[in-house]
Amino acid sequence: MILLHAGFDGLDISFRSTISPELVARLKSAKDEAEAVKQGVGIDLNGVRFEVGPSGGIGGYAFVLDAGPRRGIWTIKKPNAKDPWGLAYSSRARPLAMKGIDYVRQDIDLMLDALGCAVPNDGVSIRRVDYAIDFHDPGFVLDPYDFVTHSQTKSSTYLELSDARVNGRSGRVSSATFGKMPGRQVIVYDKREEALAKNKLDWFFIWDEAMERLGQPALDYSDPAGSRVWRSEFRLAKRALRDRAGIKGWVSLYTGLAVELQKLTHDIELRVPSDSADRTDWTVHPNWEVLRDVLSNDLFEHELKIDEAALTAEDLRHKQNEFLKLTAGHAITFAALEGVEASDIDAFLEDLPWRLQACVEQSSRPIADRLRDARKKYSALLCA
Prior knowledge:
By secondary structure, the protein is of the alpha+beta class. It has helices at 21-37, 93-99, 101-115, 162-167, 191-197, 202-213, 224-227, 238-244, 250-267, 286-295, 308-337, 345-361, 367-377, and strands at residues 2-15, 41-45, 48-52, 63-66, 72-76, 87-91, 124-136, 147-149, 155-160, 172-180, 184-190, 229-237, 268-272, 283-284. The longest helix is centred in the C-terminal third of the chain and has 30 residues, at 308-337.
């Protein structure tokens, strides 16, 4: 087993504060525009850029503001004297993994200032915390039956059937979930598979950095069996944090989280099967012991060093390829609608640039404005 990553993966917080009537008016105007164009509209607040969505959020939140891939999502209510908890924030996994929770906390304060919101010391409510540990172990096979859980813990598994379809073998388990939100939950799953499926390129940078730091050869991600990375994710939601552990704000999170995560690893345990019919007699799996040891260390320490410029450049390349594929796909569909046969596709594509140029020139909006808006929308990819 090689430990590749350990750190926070999710953070949801509510704040006892409300936005000003002036900001309500600005957000409503941006939201109306977003509804009209059916996509987010950018807005600059005191030097921080947000994208206002065309709809609100569940739970009475009138506005949804996306602070970008290096930050997260704000959901904001209109001021209401009967409900002082007017803001909520959900961090993306990327800043937590790349820079740690202390950085995210400071960044949240910066965005609160941009929103013009002051939050009292007791005005922070931690709603959910996810902590993830990634490990590489080519010999590890996920079997939900190897987990021993509390009698009241619910579990579920998901079978990946691609092996059965291709090779006629029985499906392998790629994910097992124990517990239920909004309480406590553990999920063990094939993170390499998910990262490839969802194009989460940052995880490959993180794992490569870990292998290099450990003096290990880089993983060949084209080889599923040889490069499989398993994630154990430990999740605590508001019911477990506040009601069970008394974790409400930042101070109690720092002092009480490790204990609660340790308890979770004892209530849900991965064990090594034996001949004993009593599964509680089975020994704890060595990998689980390592994970438990990780959770006994300083959870808030962060030492990861990733070349963010290189990662952003890779993100930009991926986005460019994504648009190139979309453009090619639309071109083929356009050709089909015009009755073009395969033998004539080269001639069609040779003529296409002139038709595209004419279409752009006939647009009612100046090309400079459209380029400016596109750069703003993808500014996070262009700042490397």
